[in-house]
Amino acid sequence: MSGGSYYVPASSKWPALGSLAVGTMMVGIGTMLVHGSGSLVMLVGLVAVLTVMWMWFRDVVRESRGGLYDAQMDRSFRWGMGWFIFSEVMFFAAFFGSLFYVRTFAVPWLDGEGAKGVTALLWPDFTASWPLMNPPGSDISGPHEAVSPWQLPLVNTLFLVTSSITLTIAHEALKEGYRLTARNWLIGTLLLGVCFLLVQGFEYHEAYTHYGITLEAGIYGSTFFLMTGFHGLHVTVGAITLAVILSRVIKGHFTRDNHFAFEAAAWYWHFVDVVWIGLFLFVYVF
């Protein structure tokens, strides 16, 4: 590079360890879902993921505070975060695609509609509907009632939409040099995220105990928990990231012109909010 040096980060073990940690956690989750065991493996993986996140954040913060990053590294971070969010878009696109396929094709086929309506011969008494309250197989018991979108899901939507607004205010305050204002609005954002998780936990309890919506309650139950559960996991990761950013704001790490870590966390949080709006519309409302 002309006018400066090209910084090459030191060899890092965190990407490999992070992959192993996430893999361990997912093996544990999968074992729990299929066999009802594996909670210890899942817990070990979760602790490992949190540990890797902490140590990786620590190293990056130290490098940044040590003045090792330049404009080239800033561009690299931006491209890296952009591609990461793109991969997350594809991750959730697969879930939305599966929901679309089930509702538009698979369920109507079982009722005799469409090009593959011959599959109605499998369960001739089946009637297609969504949410699917009466699965075709007699060995599967469907839910008693669907989750109303105008109660807890609407509250959570208001929480996340408001959190995007408060985070934007905090970002603008930081760019203007109002660190105290940025801190306060960031605390508000984090509290709204925590409220979202608490409400979702209560909603899950209601779904299991009162509505009969479980992972075994047919395709509606499985898609409901798969999509909202993974989104809740992303909210948790986003909240942890915002907590780290908040601690750095309090310590005075950021300046008006040098605060990409804050921006990256904001990008991720806004992405999670947009995904929730899609979930609210297509999982709860329509």
Q: Could you list some keywords that capture this structure?
A:
286 residues, Helix Hairpins, Four Helix Bundle (Hemerythrin (Met), subunit A), 7 helices, elongated, transmembrane helix, Cyt_c_oxidase_su3_a-hlx, cytochrome-c oxidase, translocase, Cyt_c_oxidase_su3-like_sf
The beta-strand count equals: 0
Structural class: mainly alpha
- How many DSSP H or I helices? 7
Number of domains: 2
What integer is the average pLDDT? 91
Shape: elongated
Distance N terminus to C terminus? 53 Å
Using the CA coordinates, give the radius of gyration: 22 Å
Helix and strand string, N-terminal first?
A: HHHHHHH
Question: What is the CATH architecture annotation of the largest domain?
Answer: Up-down Bundle
Q: What would CATH call the class of the largest domain?
A: Mainly Alpha
* CATH fold node name of the largest domain: Four Helix Bundle (Hemerythrin (Met), subunit A)
Considering DSSP H and I runs of 4 or more, what fraction of the residues is helical? over 70%
Largest sheet: none
| CATH homologous superfamily title of the largest domain | Cytochrome c oxidase, subunit III, four-helix bundle
User: Low-confidence parts lasting 5 or more residues at pLDDT below 50?
Assistant: none
Approximately how much beta-strand content do the residues carry?
A: under 5%
Keywords: Membrane, Translocase, Transmembrane, Transmembrane helix
Pfam families: COX3 (PF00510)
Main location: membrane
Subcellular location: Cell membrane; Membrane
